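debug: dumping io for the single-chain case to check the tokenizer round-trip. Nothing else runs in this session.
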Amino acid sequence: MEIKTGGQAAAQALIAHGIDTIFTLSGGHLNPIYVNLEDSDIRYFDTRHEQAAVWMAEAYGRFKRKPGVALVTAGPGFTNALTPIASAMMAATPLVLISGCVGLNMVEKLDLQDMRQLPVIEPMVKKAFVCHKPERVGEFIDMALREAASGRPGPVYLELPVDVLNGAPGDPNAVKIPVTKVESRIVDHVKVNQLAELIAGAKKPVLVAGSGAWYSDAGAVLTELVDKTHIPIFTASNGRGVVSDLHPNCFSGMSPIRPGASIHASFGTDLYILLGFRINLFSMFGDTINPEAKLVQVDIQPEEIGRNRRIDLPIHSDIRTLVEELNLIIDKKGNGETLKKQFAGWNDELKQGEAETLAQSQPLWESDANPIHPLRLSREIDNFLDRDDDILVTDGGDTTVWMNMTRTMRTAGHFLEYGLFGSLGGGLPNANAAKLLYPEKRVLLVTGDGSMGFNFMEYERAIKRGLSHVTVISNDQGWGMIRHSQVVKLGHSIDSVTHLGNVEYHKFVEAMGGVGFLVTEPGDIRPAIEEAFASGKTACVNVMVDPDVISPGSMALAQVGAYKM
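debug: decoded output
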């Protein structure tokens, strides 16, 4: 096929790469791409705000482990997309943001929606590209998709000026539509053997599997490793579920505020092995790890190794490849049964510590108090989502904390939260993306009432598209995490900036064509969720929770870093 314009080259490149979905909000600078994809197999999901389009593309990247693609127009379309891009960078999500911009021949003429976009976004992405020639558009799309998926994944920006998209190639014979496949399967063979020796010499080892374990598809080989050795494992970030929480040697989420064995393991370990997990706020910057323990950090990005703590054995490697080789070494040595016996007492110790902390939270998970305790709401959701393929999305400050304290992860890639960037508002677009990609699965979004307000009109998109997911709002009538951290720090909340009051969100959803439920009694939570799913419609369950309960996350926010006063 002869490529006659840059827009046609862009369309053919996206098709050649097998892109099946593009998330977008239409704009005039994008028309040269739209018109050339009009009769293709690529589906569009059009949102009511560019932010929502990029949140959906990020969800695609995290679910599918390949780049999601968002398409936005110039100027305000571009600036509206920035928040989820920053979040994707922190979360290492493969994503390509393609933005239109004014024509090269119109720069500095004060044209409509003109701005210098590249300098704004360049520090926020893994790499940023601008294509200046129609004949090279296909090459740049290939570069962007390759960069987003290779090594440590991340968001990539590609700017396509409108006159480049409308323009004809200067040399039609120079047009290329390359499709490059890259797989990062590097491993340091010497250091894998050193790691095997450290494990053999340890008494209380701990594995922590993070996002790198998920993106490298290491779940099966990690489960094999744990089965062979009975090394206790914790999961974190996008790695939640790579080994099921139901596995006898998995101690669920690695979090200092989650009831369980995490703190006991961190303080008691003599060998702490990080597999694709960055030492950050969610591990208290490494301060809870036994200073006498040997630390091993395995990461696909060598520059990441050593952040916040000295590392005794740094290993630059793909996680799945490393664990595969480690399993072979253990098989060759034939010491798996020896290791099981060696670590049996350590597992028993952790199980005892886990049982003790779970018992402390059990009364709150089972609370019949009214107003409803947020942990009771979280437990009702966790009990309901009992299928291996159920998808849970969280949004909101305290709400995400309560759910992280409670959720039992059975399957990797079925839990989506905001992560380190801590940005609210992505929950509803994420839920829309989840149901769009997996229409056969139950999708539940649990969100705070504050975060619900950011992209509320995406309900209209969900209802129009028949996305029958269920939202449960943990409604404490305010910006709970900020309000509660103020109480801890100041002795009182500043209601003029933290109080939202009672908003009947469920009625707004009903007015748009969905179904809504109001819940004020703890015993009514489960029946409302069941009825919401049974309706087969986009549904909202508005649950009034106790506004005065302070979460461990709010306590931490008041005590750490720059938030101290």
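debug: round-trip ok. The chain has three domains: 6-174, 189-360, 366-563.
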